[in-house]
Amino acid sequence: MVRYRDLFVFFALCGVFLLAPGVASAHTGTGMSGGFISGFAHPILGWDHVVAMVAVGLWGAFLGAPAIWLLPVIFPLVMAFGTVLGIVGVPISGIETGIASSAIVLGLLILLAIRLPLWIACIIVGVFAIFHGYAHGTELPQAANPLAFIIGFVLATGMLHLIGIGIGLLLRWPAGKFAVRTLGGIISMAGIGFLFGIA
Predict the structure, then answer these.
(1) In contact, 52 and 40? CB cutoff 8 Å
(2) Contact criterion met (CB below 8 Å) for 165 and 58
(3) 97, 61, 69: which is closest to 184 by C-alpha?
(4) Alpha carbon 21 to chain centroid distance?
(5) What values do phi and psi take at 173, rounded to 5?
(6) What is the pTM assigned to this prediction?
(7) Does residue 12 sit in helix, strand or coil?
(8) Which of 7, 76, 127, 138 can pair with 154 through a Cys bridge, CB separation 3.0 to 4.6 Å?
(9) DSSP secondary structure letter of residue 156
């Protein structure tokens, strides 16, 4: 059952981050255009991506079935779409803020143990996936093999989601629930660091 307090907190947080100043510099893995290896390494070497993608798996584990598998499937699929938007040059503003906000919002959802309806969770993950994909799509026109880059990037993203799900297995124990929620707080703080250029 949806708790209206949870919805209010979520939408209030979204409003705060949409009004955040344009100082974010979350996309730390610039200049890595290339083939499959570059695509695979890119999300692993960028802390902004590691944090957000692990958070997707972790939140999916927190929400349980079917979110535990649906969110980690939606993210890379929509991210690939965002990458194409970046390649063709569709103008989207606030990309760095969106990337940083993905860690902040997902981390807070985990920390505060907020359970949203599945369709809202899918929309949240999908919107953040566009920001992450778009940031890389803008680098791809000079890539040696854009398709291979995207395939590597999507596979690495899936791996990071699986790590988040694996950590989420700790939710079976009371101490594990505390650990997962604490990790959500750490993820959110990392996102704040990305947002204001201090991480």
Answers:
(1) no
(2) yes
(3) 61
(4) 20
(5) -115, 150
(6) 0.76
(7) helix
(8) 76
(9) H
Q: How far apart (Å, rounded) are the C-alpha atoms in residues 38 and 162? A: 20
CA dist 57 and 46 (Å) reads 17
Q: What is the pLDDT along the chain (199 residues), one digit of tens a residue?
A: 445 454 444 444 444 444 344 334 444 444 444 678 878 887 788 888 899 999 999 999 999 999 999 999 999 999 889 988 988 888 988 999 999 999 999 999 999 989 999 999 999 999 999 999 898 777 765 656 778 887 888 899 889 999 999 998 888 888 888 999 999 999 999 999 988 886 5
- Tokens 């965002």 correspond to 82
Angle at 31 between CA 141 and CA 77, to 5 degrees: 60
47-63 vs 67-88: helix axis angle to the nearest 10?
Answer: 150
Q: Using CA atoms, how far apart are residues 183 and 143, in angstroms rounded to an integer?
A: 35
Bond prior to 91 in cis (omega within 30° of 0):
no
H and E: helices and strands count for the chain: 8, 0
Surface-to-core class of residue 52, CB atoms within 10 Å of its CB (0-12 exposed, 13-18 middle, 19+ buried): buried
